[in-house]
Amino acid sequence: MMKKVRTVLGDVSSIDIENIMIHEHILFDISLPDTNKKNLSEISMKDRWQIDYLSNQNAENARQKNFTIALEELNYFREDGGNLIVDQSVFGLDRDAEGLAKLSKLSGVHIVASAGCYTEPYLPKSFLQKEFKDLVSHFIFEVNEGLDGSPVKAGIIGEIGCSWPITSFEVKALKAAAVAAKETGCALSVHPGRAPESCAQILDIVTSMDLNPNRVILCHMDRTFPNGEGVEKLLDTGANVEWDFFGIEQSYYWMGNVELPNDFSRLRLINKFSDAGYSDQILISHDICTKTRMRSFGGHGYSHIIRNIPELFKRLGFDVSLLKKLIHENPKNILAF
């Protein structure tokens, strides 16, 4: 049976998909709803580095809703050989499904939109009051019928937001997302809480709903297990793990006291787990969710991995064919119905 990938412009054959960035944000607002958004100023060259260093602590940096800039970034990606981007901007991050559809049509880049919701602080009270069965129906509807009143369908569920400690609503939403993933055939992507224990807890919750771990993506290995310790236990369950901070070349982590790896360190860990037999379960991306990581603002853009990582493979003496598995075969398999 031919497998398909559900994009914002409809289902396409997985055969036609390659060079995939599995975890990015194109049109988004990741600033907290109660953040003071008045008197925001444009990002200038003189303060660009410091704003980037502190990432989403600057509310102006934490949102990108400009259609022209988004189109330009996608054109850069296509010109560098990129073919598909998964926008994991779920409900709570100012998702714009119809905007993504227009961008896909104009740029020629396949885009996958996401069903689901982010962490509790980003969600309105009306959504937090939804019953479990209503959440299940809601997430399934987003995949099968459309997002936010549009005909644009989601092709993945998540990144479902989890805090640490996880809240009761987040447990309910995660369970509902697991049921919806099983019913629709979609993969489930999860944003773990900022603690190493969060990933195991997430797997316990989703498997309690009878979802196979091989349909689960655990995001943000870079900040959850910066030295790789603890990742193999997750891989042993059959789950997929994702290093998605590629292009962030600084030790400082703006959300906690964690020493982040650089791209060399990420590749060493990935190669180690690949040599141990887990190469089919590893995904990579950039998780661009601030302006200063975009090329329009002096950043690396969505195609940094395509442009620059092959040379790092060579310098480390690793088999560069592994990169094809990481950005072609593995994400295509996880996205395919």
Question: Care to describe what's here?
Answer:
This protein has 337 residues and is an alpha/beta fold. The chain has a single domain, classed as Metal-dependent hydrolases (TIM Barrel), CATH 3.20.20.140. It is 38% helix and 15% strand. It is built from 12 helices and 12 strands. It has helices at 48-53, 67-79, 97-107, 125-128, 132-144, 168-184, 197-207, 221-224, 231-236, 263-278, 304-316, 321-335, and strands spanning 4-7, 10-13, 20-24, 28-29, 63-64, 84-87, 110-115, 154-161, 188-191, 216-218, 240-243, 282-284. The strands form 3 sheets. It has an 8-stranded parallel β-sheet with strand order 3-6-7-8-9-10-11-12. Strands 1-2 form a two-stranded antiparallel ribbon. Helix 10 (263-278) links the parallel strand 11 (240-243) and strand 12. Helix 5 packs across helix 6, helix 6 packs across helix 7 and helix 10 (263-278) packs across helix 11 (304-316). The termini are close together. 48% of the residues are buried. The mean pLDDT is 97.
Please give the structural blueprint:
Elements: E1 4-7, E2 10-13, E3 20-24, E4 28-29, H1 48-53, E5 63-64, H2 67-79, E6 84-87, H3 97-107, E7 110-115, H4 125-128, H5 132-144, E8 154-161, H6 168-184, E9 188-191, H7 197-207, E10 216-218, H8 221-224, H9 231-236, E11 240-243, H10 263-278, E12 282-284, H11 304-316, H12 321-335
Parallel strand pairs: 3-6, 6-7, 7-8, 8-9, 9-10, 10-11, 11-12
Antiparallel strand pairs: 1-2, 4-5
Helix content: 25-40%
**CA gyration radius, whole angstroms:** 18 Å
Major sheet details? 8 strands, parallel
What count of domains describes the coordinates?
1
The third-level CATH topology is TIM Barrel
Q: Please tally the helical runs, counting DSSP H or I stretches of 4 or more residues.
A: 12
What CATH architecture would you give? Alpha-Beta Barrel
Supply the CATH superfamily name: Metal-dependent hydrolases
Chain-averaged pLDDT: 97
Gross geometry = globular
Roughly what fraction of the amino acids lie in strands?
A: 5-15%
Assign the structural class, choosing from mainly alpha, mainly beta, alpha/beta, alpha+beta, or little secondary structure: alpha/beta
Instruction: List unreliable stretches of 5+ residues.
Output: none
CATH top level? Alpha Beta
Question: Separation of termini?
Answer: 10 Å
